[in-house]
Amino acid sequence: MRNQFMLFLFLCALAFSIAPSARAEESVRLEVAVYLDINGDKIMSDGEGIANVTVIVDVDGHRQAKSTQNGQVIFSLPYANIQTIHVEVPYFALADEVKPKDNLAQVDFRLKSPELPVYLP
């Protein structure tokens, strides 16, 4: 019984000593907002986010696509040395390029509220 216990301890020590160390790979977090600025304050307020809009991200030919939820979508881009991120919202024919800073990039696509006539003709 003692020999089995010693073997168990040896195997546990061996397993922990040769286990590969998990190193988190650097990635860039990209936050995208798509909203209709109803109140004109130039920030996304409650209820202004546009849901279910496809956002396409391109980093050096690597493309990802996701749909917005409540006007927002977050991408985790695990590519090394990202210089420029190309972001598109094809439904509204909008595009922008952003350079990440400290592994974070943000893009806001603000749609102006349409002006409606005060009086009908």
Structure explained in plain terms:
The chain is mostly beta strands and about 120 residues long. It has one domain: Immunoglobulins (Immunoglobulin-like, Sandwich). About 15% of the residues lie in helices and about 40% in strands. The chain is built from 1 helix and 7 strands, in the order αβββββββ. The protein has one helix at about 1-20, and strands at about 30-35, 55-60, 60-65, 70-75, 85-90, 95-100, 105-110. Strands 3-2-5-6 form a 4-stranded antiparallel β-sheet, with no helix packed on it. A 3-stranded mixed β-sheet has the order 4-1-7, with no helix packed on it. Strand 5 and strand 6 form a beta hairpin. The radius of gyration is 24 Å and the shape is elongated. Residues about 15-25 have low confidence and may be disordered.
Going by CATH, the homologous superfamily would be Immunoglobulins
By oligomeric state, this entry counts as: single chain
Largest sheet: 4 strands, antiparallel
Structural class: mainly beta
Distance between the termini: 97 Å
CATH fold node name: Immunoglobulin-like
Total discrete domains:
1
CATH architecture: Sandwich
Topology at a glance:
Elements: H1 2-18, E1 28-37, E2 54-59, E3 62-67, E4 72-77, E5 85-89, E6 94-98, E7 104-112
Parallel strand pairs: 1-7
Antiparallel strand pairs: 1-4, 2-3, 2-5, 5-6
